[in-house]
Amino acid sequence: MQHKIEAAKMTVGLIIGSSVSMLSASGSAIALTEQLNAPHKFLYLNLPMWMFFSAIFALSIIGSVASLFTDIYKDNGFKTLPISHQILHFIGGFLSGIIGAFVLLPAFTQTQSPPLEIMMVTALALSSSGVVLLNNWGELKRDEKLQQSVRQLIISRITWFVDIFTNNKGGDK
Amino acid sequence: MNLLSYFNWQGVNLITPYIGLFMCGYMMLSARHCTQRITTSTFIIVLVFIWLNLMWADIGHTHFVPTRQTMTARLLLLLAMLLFMAELYTTTKIIRALGHEESFLKKPNLFKRIKK
Fold first, then answer.
1. Partners of A41 in the beta sheet?
2. Using CB atoms and an 8 Å cut-off, which of residues 112-151 of chain A contact chain B?
3. Does residue A25 sit in helix, strand or coil?
4. Complex-level ipTM
């Protein structure tokens, strides 16, 4: 009977201890939600911060969807692509917009909190251009003939330039 | 120079990247400007990065001060983009006029190598 009371006391103590740790963890979570609800002045309105972050997400989505309508895919556009390619294109655009706005922009400008308007423009611009760049890079890597012709072009230009000096008899090098 | 001092040159300096980005977006999405070639689309994306970096320079560091020369350079870059847009428009029009037959347009290597 005694050890059952001891076990019950230990269990109650453990429950209280874990609930305290849970409260402290949720305390930091509450601080985060408070920060996200903090108002920021934009266009004469005091909007909560989470609206701006969701606007950045929405603009990344809009940018990557808009890049589907460009001419980068042959055979009359993106509708002839398989669904998996379209989804990969969309996800790549979304990720490049988010990475550009939250990683590249603070790193390049060396400010910890860049203005939210610039973040939104950066997300929109980089989401539509990042996936076009990735597509072009993929095409360049895939096309062997294109790589060979680029290499031959570089080599022929270098040899033309070197020939100017090697064939120049009596002139200064 | 008194007349010029009434003009808001700082505003002109700040707005040129936005105009440049809008023009890049227009070129990529317009049906009259063909950006199917790798070089054309990469060139436009590099222009997007140029304008983005200029926009970041305006807000990032405190020691970047725009001068008359940097502002003139931005305006000339806009002018160069306008000329490139006109060139692309004309080239697209010529190629479409040359190949209005469907079989000619469906050739995959059409924009990679123009036969003389």
1. A46
2. 114-115, 118, 121-122, 125-126, 128-129, 132-133, 136, 139-140
3. helix
4. 0.76
